[in-house]
What we know:
The complex is a heterodimer of chains A (about 350) and B (about 260). Helices cover about 25% and strands about 35% of the residues of chain A. Chain A has about 350 residues and is α+β, with helices and mostly antiparallel strands. In chain A, the strands form 4 sheets. In chain A, strands 6-7-8-3-9-10 form a 6-stranded mixed beta sheet, with helices on both faces. Chain A has a 5-stranded antiparallel beta sheet with strand order 13-12-11-14-20, with no helix packed on it. Chain A is elongated, with a radius of gyration of 25 Å. Chain B is about 80% helix and about 0% strand. Chain A: Belongs to the ABC transporter superfamily. Chain A: This is ABC transporter ATP-binding protein.
Amino acid sequence: MYLEVESLEKRYGHFAPSVSDLSFSLGQGELLGLLGPSGCGKTTTLRMISGLVQATSGKIKVGGQDVTGLPTYRRNMGVMFQSYALFPHMTIAENVAFGLQMRKARHADIAKRVESALAMVHLSGVAERKPRELSGGQQQRVALARALVIEPDILLLDEPLSNLDAKLRDNMRGEIRDIQQRLRMTTVFVTHDQTEAMAICDRIIVMNRGKLEQIGTPHDIYENPATPMVAEFVGRINRLEGQWRNDGAVAVGDSLIRAKDDGGTGRVLIMIRPHRIDLSASDAKSAVSPEENAINGTIRHVTYVGDTFQYEVATTGGLLHVEKATSSATDPFQPGDTVTLRWKTRDTLTFSTEVAG
Amino acid sequence: MLPTISRGLHALGIISIMMFLLAPVILVFPISFSADAHVAWPPSAWSTRWYVALLHNEEMVTAFRNSLVIAGCVTALTLVVAMPAAVALTRWKFWGRDALTSLFTAPLLLPSIVLGLAILVIFAGYGLVGSWPGVIIGHLVITLPYALRVLITGLSTMPAFVEDAAGTLGADPWQVFRRITLPLMTPALVASAALAFIVSFDEVVISLFIAGTQLKLLPVSLYHYVESWTDPLVAAVSALLVLGTLGIVLIVERAIGFGKAVSK
């Protein structure tokens, strides 16, 4: 493993720790996302890896070498800051050259490497300008070039896309991924945007209140969330409360629901993604396969958002949100319509609430 | 019709406020070129005799030179002390930091007559009254809080994380200071230097207490001169002071304007 983090902890004074008991490891060339709501400790973690914040306890190893005690300037990590943090009094070329000068690279060498770094981020021709003369997107490319030109052991990106507008954000996201793959650069990417993390990360760590909730591939995180927090953080989801029965089903209100897991005791939280539920007119009676749940309900509310209809359906189990792609072929359901909701049992997530309470 | 009148009134208001503030300063110039033996308005004739008299007034010339040298020393020492202090107070986290900041800038609030008296009492015991080091230290008490305020503001309004960024690129703390912090705080340094110079050069109360009779300083000599004479010589001195101050202000304006152009 290339980057190893072992039981990392950061405390400020007597408050609850900002980060605690955080361990993970990262292979060479892997792109890891640190995902979580604001204040979850993801930026603190990134700053501990870069050395800008001293860990209270725990270890950080790069390539097998313990760097926990090294100051930032000895760590050789490329950091891209949310505000870009370009040096306002230097030209773009001087900004990019700074790290090479600190490494005492040869003059001719510096010029050549600065040029190729700027070319890599598609920014040739602005070398002599000052940061304030560039747009936000361009400044960001400079920041990326500046972080990469020093050939860092690890690239650390702190919410790099959050200051850009939506269109630019998607482009830049793809470009960061391209460059990262091309250089096989081990990268840690901090974000609070789950789509962003899913789109480009090899693996994602979801953090909450300073703790690791789950680490896994984007697919794992979305399909098999380890905790209700993870399930709710990555995408929209319905939650229902029920009780395990002896036959392996869950009683929710007056309905019976079968889940992926079959068996448990006590109270249980059931979660289903809104777009995994199918809606049909309730008179269309058809056999219910054992891999399916089917319950009846009444449409309460319809919201049209262009690509989907968002339905609120009152069922015998409780209120459920359902998302359907819009289509010109079929008419949407109206409030008051009675419908049957069907979804696969394997799309039904369960979280026992007995222990957590 | 109405807007024209209100706009006229508006302009008139601004002009009268400007006149009220600046009239005494402007008036000094014509009076300094008076040929009369007393300050009078309007002068009966024009001449440069009071500028010539000023050049031959040995006390004034000496006092002027002394004040310049003192202000220069005070300015240099102010920067040497205030700059590290400002860096420590803004960049380091330690217990009691805010309290120290308040303490160091508190002399701004004290009446200088209180400070002057206190300093006199202390300095008398060490034979510092009437000496160059005494006056310089006395002035530092006044100039340091000003400079510290300006430098702290300059340091805390620096763009976020640029020093961190330099660190991640391999710059050690000294290189960060020299290549990043220092260039970015140049406008604040120029401003605080100018402020320290003007405040020291201008200081009457503390100087009155500490300079004594042996060490001549311009504001003190001027003060004593006005007590016994009423001729336009003081107007000539004042005119030169106004021009000198204007020059310093222009330099600062250039530096800060330049600074704004450099930063984001």
